[in-house]
Amino acid sequence: MDGLGRFAEPSVLILASLADGPKHGYALIKDIEELAGTTLGPGTLYAALARLEQRQLIEALPEQDRRRPYRITPAGAQAVRSYLEDARRVVAAGLKRLAAFA
Questions:
Q1: Which CATH number fits the domain that encloses residue 75?
Q2: Are 12 and 48 contacting, i.e. CB atoms less than 8 angstroms apart?
Q3: CA 33, CA 63: separation in Å to the nearest integer?
Q4: What pLDDT is recorded for position 101?
Q5: Each residue of 77-102: pLDDT tens digit?
Q6: How many contiguous H segments (helices) and E segments (strands) does the chain have?
Q7: Is 62 helix (H, G, I), strand (E, B) or coil?
Q8: How many structural domains compose the chain?
Q9: Partner residues linked to 95 by β-bridges
Q10: 3-state secondary structure of 66
Q11: Residue 33 sits in which domain range?
């Protein structure tokens, strides 16, 4: 996930969404809303998709009914898995430390 700058968070959300199958832009937006309770605007979404595709973490599939679906690549799955495992360790440690304030 290095080098994604301000698109790191949207990229993680996109990769997590694509982990259960290919989706086009609107389907990604809706799935991310359900998954994370946040809305990605079209500009943010498509900029992040371009960066992920450039880094070969996702790939575009053939157009279907004027929609372009994307799917996660094995490299994308490994990248988001590593990121989420690191995040899980930070969350667990942070929650443990905050338990003293309960």
A1: 1.10.10.10
A2: no
A3: 24
A4: 84
A5: 999 999 899 889 999 999 999 998 87
A6: 4, 2
A7: coil
A8: 1
A9: none
A10: coil
A11: 5-101
- Note the pLDDT tens digit of each residue in 47-79: 999 999 999 999 999 998 889 999 999 999 999
**Residue reference for tokens 């279907």:** 64
> CA-CA distances (angstroms) from residue 49 to 3, 16, 22, 33?
14, 13, 13, 17
Indicate the pTM of the whole model.
0.89
Contact in structure between 40 and 29 (CB atoms under 8 Å):
yes
Nearest-CA neighbor of 16 among 5, 3, 33?
A: 33
pLDDT tens digits, one per residue of 9-20:
999 999 999 999
Phi and psi for 19 in degrees, rounded to 5? Answer: -60, -25
The tokens describing 81, both together, are 């898995």
- Tokens at 94, concatenated: 């942070």
